[in-house]
Specification:
35% of the residues lie in helices and 19% in strands.
Length: 364
């Protein structure tokens, strides 16, 4: 019984710590393993039910608190299962290739020497757009092989684990590399012309995660994502946001991003698409994301086989159809959401100025 009481205490502590409004990596780290915490909560509940010999008032209260934490964790992850209504409708009817766009998002892991695995995957899947993250000059040289098929390229090779490359079969219109908050962290902002002629916006992001070895807190990560979300809300254009956001879909920040941007998550009502960590199956969560505006339907979203990185690649195929605006329910924000987003963006801008006083931040 002692073991299950300790386990219950850990579950309650992890749940409550994640609720605290602190950006420090220690607290934000508890946003990630909700599936794992939920599993431990289930073990603790069953174990206590089977091992408590006499139910005292304190023990009953402890189980009630544990049950409350279990239900909360379940509430956070349940939307990413088939038990929840789909946020994005499946493409129906005859395919119109001219309105389709397929994206392969892959955090390649800079020191990963297995370049052939990604090249083979691209050859097999033939996506319209390939987004690589953590790609440096060595990866850039290896990926030159695909450039005859992907003539529209944006190259940002870096040795700091935040390099980024964009390869596209579809024409890119006025692509820009922006350093929104840090001179070390790029993002790519471009319009993409679909085969039908429609121009859509594509934002490729890879902010720093809050961790002991990366950023001490999530302030800049959150601000970058919310800056893009706020921009999308103001422009109200057809768009896709893709990349390794170093955050999970159920975090407070990502859910706020969805509300202020109005973008949809094709995983809701379907599956988790857990992409990290490849080597630890029981410690995986969704770090690689694709969000899109309401005028797309989903053809497919799949986790691809390992390419030797610590992330699995993700392949997403979307179909542009303006009629879906009337079918999809936009994720709407409240005045409180807008105020919170503005405050967190301002906090991020101020911290960025303190950390990088010589950096002139790009405007979005």
């Amino acid at each position: 019984m002692l073991f299950f009481n300790i386990l219950a205490g850990l579950v309650v502590s992890a749940t409550l710590l994640a609720l605290l409004p602190f950006n420090h990596w220690f607290f934000r780290g508890f946003d990630f393993p909700r599936l794992q915490i939920l599993a431990l909560a289930g073990v603790a509940l069953v174990g206590l039910m089977l091992t408590v010999p006499v139910w005292s008032t304190a023990q009953i209260l402890a189980v009630i608190v544990l049950l409350g934490c279990t239900l909360y964790q379940l509430k956070m992850v349940l939307p990413y299962t088939v038990l929840w209504p789909k946020q994005v409708q499946q493409r129906q009817g005859q395919a119109d290739v001219s309105r389709e766009i397929s994206l392969l998002v892959s955090n390649v892991l800079t020191p990963n020497s297995n370049k052939a695995a990604l090249l083979d995957l691209i050859q097999q899947q033939q996506p319209d757009v390939v987004i690589t993250l953590e790609s440096d000059k060595v990866w850039e040289a290896a990926l030159q092989q695909i450039e005859p098929d992907y003539p529209h390229v944006v190259r940002v090779p870096l040795d700091n684990l935040y390099g980024m490359h964009l390869y596209s079969r579809l024409p890119l219109v006025e692509p820009e590399v922006k350093f929104l908050l840090s001179p070390e962290i790029p993002s790519i902002h471009t319009r993409v012309r679909l085969r039908c002629g429609k121009l859509i916006w594509l934002y490729c992001l890879h902010p720093k995660p809050p961790s002991p070895t990366e950023a001490k807190d999530s302030t800049l990560r959150d601000a970058e994502l919310l800056m893009v979300g706020d921009h999308i809300e103001q422009q109200e254009h057809t768009c896709i946001v893709a990349g390794d956001l170093n955050d999970v879909a159920w975090s407070r920040t990502t859910r706020l991003f969805q509300r202020i941007s109005g973008l949809l998550d094709p995983r809701v009502g379907r599956q988790f698409v857990n992409t990290f960590h490849v080597d630890y199956p029981i410690l995986r969560w969704s770090l690689d994301h694709v969000f899109h505006s309401t005028d797309f339907s989903l053809i497919e979203m799949r986790r691809m086989p390992s390419i030797g990185s610590d992330h699995f690649p993700v392949l997403t195929r979307l179909h542009y159809d303006p009629r879906m605006d009337e079918v999809h329910e936009e994720v709407e924000s409240s005045a409180a959401d807008d105020q919170e987003a503005a405050e967190r963006i301002e906090q991020g801008v101020e911290q960025a100025q303190e950390e990088h006083p010589q950096h002139r931040a790009d405007r979005i």
